[in-house]
């Protein structure tokens, strides 16, 4: 038998430990790689979008119809240098952009850095337009698969010879989101880091348990003349081989997970930031493999490689002052920090401190209870709980973190869903939504609708959308904001929830006494009710008092809500629509009446209930990834605690058996065991609760406004607490059930070597 | 014969490993009265520990009749398993004290708390526990934990636990096997002194021939038939 085989024989004796280690490495790698894969792709897409469309213009049809190949031909024949840009959704992978390399040749070559489609079209997201067209045709009929063609103009002055029927428009992939997109991805990175931390704790706990059991074998080999360094080298080799064997399938599974969640994540990214998720920017294999290898090595061998760290950790055991100070400092920082990075630092501080303090608290509490117990059996049970809390500290803390994370994410998602649903119902109060065709006079429709007796007053309004420029106090142009003009102001909007407002805000709005701003604009510009905003709506700047701030979830842009009557005549309307609840009047009557007055054959009519369900589906997708990650992490942590609890209880089985030897009926010994394991898992669930509520507060009140631009009300959900309580009870019961089997089998001697010298206390 | 404490008749025990079966106890019979002691000797694997486990109900024999005080366990008239287990548990709790070679103490409890726990389980008042520790010479170690004392002191604490429960029968499985000769001698002397003074029965499994001669009776399990 070789030395390596002798060392590895431990896992032949304890295959479950090897299985637990391997499973944890695979699952942790899968989770982290999945998140890393998606965030890398999204980050590259954001960069790609910014560089690809920087200061670029496109040609659109004046009649509002989408451009086609015919338009491309017509424009090229007219001598205009336009390049087709065909975006096709690739299921799972994201968006693919088809460009024509020949047409791209007329673009200025000096700006190659800003034109990522230049050069070799060797893969996603930029491919030859024929390939993208083939993909679009191949997927015809599939949801979200149709290609969208744009015609990019080579330079800002090229529109001088534009044929009639066309106009120039800025080519944008989405509104300027500032750092919001990046913040969103930073959130996911932080979640990924938390998953990594929990996984590292679990790995470390299982590995150290095995190491403790193998210490006698190492000492024996040392006595046989094997140098300690050689044993350490072999341990390093062993864990590296195990890590690589498990990391490779983990990365593969992570990429598979990312592909599965890719379309949903892409839709979420588009829904939140109007940024498409382009295909192909996947970050490769090297980063996940190297990261996970480093995590596994540090988690498992930190003590072996750095004896100093081990000495420090032993010396620091039992000292709670420093962690308590770190906890307080973290909480203080979370209240005062104004940058996202500092908030993450605060979260890290609080988690690290809570992780050190939790097992310490349970052990101290158990010792305190033991000290006050008269009954020796109860005293023994509390002392055992203290030992368990210290010995199972790492998996316990991992479970605590996972529970806190699940509590917070569940609360955030549920709060968001209920708030968003409520908001969406308010926003889509009208039953139908009709687009005003290009060139049609919307005021004719307003007159016609006003004349309909069956149509109850106020159950329709006209919506005018466009853009305005915010002016600063010295008359300089500021950021561009979206304009949402309504008229008449009626019951379809007066039920909207407002964050803050003047008295009778809707009446004041209807009377043209001011405007309302969305939360994003209010936060970004520091606007509050009573302030005055100077806006350039046409050619002239107008001052408007701010009447109210309204919630506007799910998009980053700043917006103002003003009565349509307040728009100047030279306001450039971008888009118009009518929102209608027809009441007793049939929708057919409305549409035929409007067709007649506008003299058109077709109208775009949308059912707002369908839009509502589509929007809800998009936001479900938004949180699918976070939910999946948190639930998987919780399962991982629960299984790890179960395994660790089982393995560690095995080392204490002798003492339960001793109770049986002393005449305690097996049933009562098993009851002691159950009470002990339940106390342990319930205590950690209880300690996870304040951490989870604090994390919810951080996510809702501090991180969300910084990352998304809007806030949510803080809500707690005791039902989730109960669910996690039930989970902790189930884990405790499972440990007890597994242990009962050991209690019934004869054990002639304690399993752990330390028990021979009195056992751990 | 003095008051009968233990009577065993026709005891058989086999262990199965795959298709093989090894008989460790075959048609074994013995009797022990109050105040008597019996030494069990034999090579490793001869069944000493198995017999002790059977005599306190921790293992079941394949066949045989065991009477401890008034309780009778007969393989030919098996009572319900749960009922028999409850009767054995009651005997171990109040009448049978067991001492192993090592790990007789709860590591999370002080020596005194260990003794108190054992006395309380036996239904004895725990106010005499400190006396027992004093008598065994470990009174000053009452608040120490098992990992803070020597092996000999731990075994003395184990004896204190046994005597604190005032047992009728003590089963000791190589109680001095892990101790040095000097300490082993001191612990053994205390065990025999107290056993004689309190008139309880003692069955002692040992490899030590000299120790075996100090018992009233001697049973060499090495001469048991084996199949």
TrEMBL record, chain A:
InterPro entries: ABC3_permease_C (IPR003838), Membrane_comp_ABC_pdt (IPR038766)
GO cellular component: plasma membrane
Domain ABC3 transporter permease C-terminal: 192-299, 629-743
Membrane topology note: Multi-pass membrane protein
Compartments, record wording: Cell membrane
Record field: transmembrane: 16-35, 190-212, 233-253, 285-308, 320-337, 343-363, 392-413, 631-655, 676-700, 720-739
Name the record gives this protein: ABC transporter permease
UniProtKB/TrEMBL annotation, chain B:
Domain of life: Bacteria
Transmembrane keyword on record: no
Protein's name according to its UniProt entry: ABC transporter
GO cellular component: plasma membrane
Residues in ABC transporter domain copies: 8-227
PANTHER family hit by this protein: IMPORT ATP-BINDING PROTEIN (PTHR24220), TRANSPORTER, PUTATIVE-RELATED (PTHR24220:SF659)
PROSITE patterns: ABC_TRANSPORTER_1, ABC_TRANSPORTER_2
SMART domains hit by this protein: AAA
Keywords linked to the UniProt accession: ATP-binding, Nucleotide-binding, Transport
GO molecular function, one term: ATP binding
The keyword Nucleotide-binding appears for this protein: yes
InterPro entries (UniProt xref): AAA+_ATPase, ABC_transporter-like_ATP-bd, ABC_transporter-like_CS, ABC_transpr_LolD-like, MacB-like_ATP-bd, P-loop_NTPase
